[in-house]
Amino acid sequence: MGIDDSLKILVADAISGLRTVPSATVQVALTSPPFYLLRRYGTSTIWPDGWKGELGHEQHPNDFVRHLVQVFDEVWRVLRDDGCLWVNLADTFNNKQGKKGTTNAPDGSDGRFAAGGRGYAESLRQQPEFFKHYVSSIGHKSEMGVPFRFHLAMTDPEFRAFIGAHAGPQWICRRTVIWAKSLVNLKTLRAEGNAMPEPTRDRPSRNYEFLFLFSKQPNYYFDRTAIDVPSRAGYRGGDRANAGSVWETQGEIVFDSKDEPDGLWRVNSEASPYRHVAMWPRALVRQMLLPTTRPGDTVLDPFAGSGTTGEVALDFGLKAILIESSAQCREALADRLHGINTSLAL
């Protein structure tokens, strides 16, 4: 399998790119879409409901979720019947004072913590509405429940209709995985991990994100043994057990030991050399692909970012389709996948 046959990069918004992919040709789709009101990537799309704007900056979280559902309606079409979908999401707080997180608000940061550095911060200073967006129907300083709204919209036709989405596929959520970026040892009261610090004084910091695993039907391809861990309770040496649904980005390998609670998955952490600050750890992508793909399968990432999915897929001998519209992300993707000339401009 030549490398030019194994990777396609579609320069397009997610829906337009997906519409060029033949039906029932993808085994696994996995992606981390823009989170609601957290960053700007400089993209704008005309959505099927007529709204024009950047995904993640809708007036209400239900509008954001509706647009996500429209994207994953197209993913349903290109996915094989025994395939599956992984989606990474995190929640957002409502704030009358606007967005003041260290990675988002340039005020006072002098660009040091803003995504992409000083130039990125300067560009955001020209967009004050980004920092002053407030959803009046949700309480001040409340979490908006975006991942939960998304889960319901994907699995419950009644909630899908409630947010204004047309009738469409009904996904089955097989598991919600907690990706823990840091954990606190309650015995030593010490934090371990690499979560982004938050300047908050009146609540616990946000140190995890969600990974939703969806399938089209109850029976789909999932080889659990590919990610089983050494059993602690087995009577025979070499026994292995289900690793559970909490993954932590710390440590060198995925393991389970006497000192760790059941279901804790440790995954490599790694710094991003690119401006795409929300880059997935490669080990996290490996953990999603190991039980859900076979040699030669095709994987898809409709929000490809800096290309982690493509890099890991090629390492596994898989085919990959990457869709990305952000110029900033495409620069990182091109650098990361240097020497692969398979771009398709739409």
Task: Provide tags for this entry.
single chain, 346 residues, alpha/beta, disordered C terminus
Describe the structure.
- The chain is built from 10 helices and 16 strands.
- A hairpin with a 5-residue loop joins strand 3 and strand 4.
- The chain is globular and about 50 Å long.
- It has helices at residues 3-6, 14-18, 61-78, 118-125, 128-132, 146-155, 157-162, 282-289, 308-315, 327-336, and strands at residues 7-11, 26-31, 45-46, 52-53, 79-89, 172-180, 182-185, 190-193, 208-215, 229-230, 240-241, 246-248, 264-266, 298-301, 319-324, 343-345.
- It folds into 2 domains: 3-39 and 74-90 and 175-345, Vaccinia Virus protein VP39 (Rossmann fold, 3-Layer(aba) Sandwich), CATH 3.40.50; 97-133, no CATH class.
- The protein has 346 residues and is α/β, with parallel strands linked by helices.
Task: Chart the SSEs and their pairings.
Blueprint (H helix, E strand, L loop, with lengths): L2 H4 E5 L2 H5 L7 E6 L13 E2 L5 E2 L7 H18 E11 L28 H8 L2 H5 L13 H10 L1 H6 L9 E9 L1 E4 L4 E4 L14 E8 L13 E2 L9 E2 L4 E3 L15 E3 L15 H8 L8 E4 L6 H8 L3 E6 L2 H10 L6 E3 L1
Helix pairs in contact: 3-6, 8-9
In brief, what are we looking at here?
The protein is α/β, with parallel strands linked by helices and 346 residues long. Helix content is 24%, strand content 21%. The chain is built from ten helices and 16 strands.
User: Which sequence of SSEs, written as H and E, runs from N to C?
Assistant: HEHEEEHEHHHHEEEEEEEEHEHEHE
Give a quick account of the main beta sheet: strands, pairing sense, barrel closure.
10 strands, mixed
Number of domains: 2
Percent helix, as a range, is 10-25%
CATH class designation of the largest domain:
Alpha Beta
Strand content: 15-25%
Q: Using DSSP, what is the number of strands?
A: 16
Query: What is the name of the CATH topology of the largest domain?
Result: Rossmann fold
Low-confidence runs: 100-117, 250-264, 340-346
Calculate the mean pLDDT score and round it: 77
Report the structural category: alpha/beta
Count of individual helical segments: 10
How many angstroms separate the termini?
A: 25 Å
Instruction: Supply the CATH architecture of the largest domain.
Output: 3-Layer(aba) Sandwich
Shape: globular
What strand line-up does the widest sheet have? 13-12-6-9-5-2-14-15-1-16
Q: Mind telling me the C-alpha Rg?
A: 20 Å
Q: CATH homologous superfamily name of the largest domain?
A: Vaccinia Virus protein VP39
